[in-house]
Design a protein that fits this description.
Layout lengths: L2 H25 L3 H10 L1 H10 L3 H20 L6 H21 L8 H6 L7 H30 L1 H6 L4 H42 L3 H26 L3 H30 L1
Length: about 270
């Protein structure tokens, strides 16, 4: 398989994964958390490059520590998850820049972590993305009802005898795995676009949660593949092209929804 064909396959898998988990992010209102995580895993990736170990492994280790830190900050009186996310976002990103500046001989430039390089994804990256996608699909199939129950009726969920923390932990684990998986392809900064935009676009048009979980991966996969094809056609970086394609899908969904509402008003 050539590098371009591998990039297309990676875009398809990572786009589908980002769309599927992005549906959870949008429904559970964890977009800012996901954005903080994308930026805060940056020092883990840089540190892994300094130590000569796997970059996804370094980002994954950093993400576990970051989730723990945000959880602790979020429990402080008069604080919350939004405040914790904001603190970790800026501090984590700054730490990554500092580590990179202290190691000027780093073989990989900082820009590659920020915007990604899907044309250089390895077989390991592709296998990791496929494995995380399989896990995400299994989680949605097996625990989808509980996740939706917890999302839309937390009081009723607790009253029914369920504990909320396992669902929250499961959701955070999927978000973390998706961020780490998407990072080599679209970078730390642009990963949030591929996670949030396709799901947000699908939510504008989907009438049920089931439709959302079906449509979001399709939109995500299409955004990834179209972005890679556009990057080759106009000779631009694939990461930004994928992110802009995902944003374009959201704008298109807004337009379709607006036209649908205008048609209903006209008929009325």
């Amino acid at each position: 398989m050539g590098y371009f064909e591998k990039a297309l396959l990676a875009a398809l898998v990572i786009g589908a994964l980002s769309g599927l988990v992005g549906a959870l992010v949008v429904l559970r209102r964890r977009t800012f958390f996901a954005q903080a995580l994308t930026h805060a895993t940056f020092p883990g990736a840089v540190g892994a490059a300094v130590l000569g170990i796997s970059i996804p492994l370094g980002a994954a280790i950093a993400s576990v520590a970051i989730v723990g830190i945000m959880t602790l900050i979020g429990r402080v009186e008069r604080q919350g998850i939004q405040v914790a996310s904001g603190i970790v976002l800026t501090a984590g990103f700054a730490l990554g820049v500092l580590v990179q500046a202290m190691n000027p001989a780093l073989p990989v430039q900082v820009d590659s972590y920020l915007v990604g390089s899907i044309l250089t994804v390895t077989n390991t990256d592709l296998l990791l993305a496929s494995a995380v996608l399989a896990v995400a699909v299994a989680v949605i199939v097996l625990f989808g009802k509980e996740i939706l129950f917890s999302t839309f009726d937390k009081g009723g969920f607790r009253a029914a005898g369920y504990r909320e923390w396992p669902i929250e932990l499961l959701s955070l684990a999927l978000i973390t795995g998706t961020v780490v998986t998407a990072m080599p392809a679209v970078g730390a900064i642009l990963a949030i676009a591929l996670i949030a935009a396709p799901a947000a676009a699908a939510r504008l048009l989907a009438r049920t949660a089931r439709q959302l979980f079906v449509a979001a991966p399709i939109v995500g996969a299409a955004s990834g593949v179209i972005g890679v094809l556009l990057s080759r056609a106009v000779d631009v970086a694939a990461g930004p092209a994928i992110a802009l394609t995902a944003a374009g899908c959201f704008l298109a969904a807004l337009g379709v929804r607006a036209l649908g509402r205008a048609r209903i008003r006209w008929r009325a």
